[in-house]
Amino acid sequence: MIYELRTYDLRHRTLPEVIKRFGDLIEGRQKLSTMIAFWFTEIGPLNQIIHCWQYEDAAERSRVRSEAVKQNRWPPKIGEFVLKQTVELFIPWDNSPLLTPGKHGPYYEMRSYLIQPGLMGQAKARWAKKLDERTARSPLAVVMEGDIGTASKLVHIWPYQSLDERIKIRNQAKEDGVWPPKNEPGETVEVQTQENKIMLPAPFSPMQ
């Protein structure tokens, strides 16, 4: 299982039209493969859309995308609105839930970390000790690591019903020593950079 995250930076005030054009075509595109989520940013880097596609492997992704172009179903005509496109493929961790359609949010927090090369295994082991305690407080949508695109990248996505709920849960988890998981004495801190964004789902997103 792989997830393709496509992040588009848009021109100012074009977001509503871009979402409309995706919505006009998404039903036909979904017949070829699963778009699991479509979000736009509310806090963080603004004027972004992030759409997530699920594939069995890279071969299926290549086949489906070629078929979509062949059938003239995809992509939507939005080139005039796009400033930048970033495409990344991720593999979910073995102890991660998989992204599933349904009403989980509507607020989704995406946290992206660059991990020092060679230390992703250390990060996994550290998370494994605390992840059950953290997810008992609020659900995790997915935690996954980059395979193609940005190397040594860790992404985790958390849904919340409100921003107040997010603050309350995170503060309590920190106060109780549950989250974030701490490094062992003598360990190198593997996280090099962190990025955070709050996203909302488009009307047609399978994850709401």
Mean pLDDT: 95
CATH topology descriptor: Alpha-Beta Plaits
Q: Name the overall outline.
A: globular
> How is the main sheet built?
8 strands, antiparallel, barrel
Q: What is the overall number of helices?
A: 5
Query: How many beta-strand elements?
Result: 8
Folded structure, characterized:
The chain contains 5 helices and 8 strands; from the N terminus they run βαββαββααββαβ. It has 208 residues and is α+β, with helices and mostly antiparallel strands. It is globular and about 55 Å long. The protein is 27% helix and 35% strand. The protein has a single domain, classed as Alpha-Beta Plaits, CATH 3.30.70.100.
Secondary structure: elements and pairs:
Elements: E1 2-10, H1 15-30, E2 34-43, E3 48-55, H2 58-70, E4 82-92, E5 107-115, H3 120-128, H4 131-135, E6 142-148, E7 153-160, H5 163-175, E8 191-201
Antiparallel strand pairs: 1-3, 1-4, 2-3, 2-8, 4-6, 5-7, 5-8, 6-7
Offer a concise description of the structure.
The protein is an alpha+beta fold and 208 residues long. The protein contains 5 helices and 8 strands.
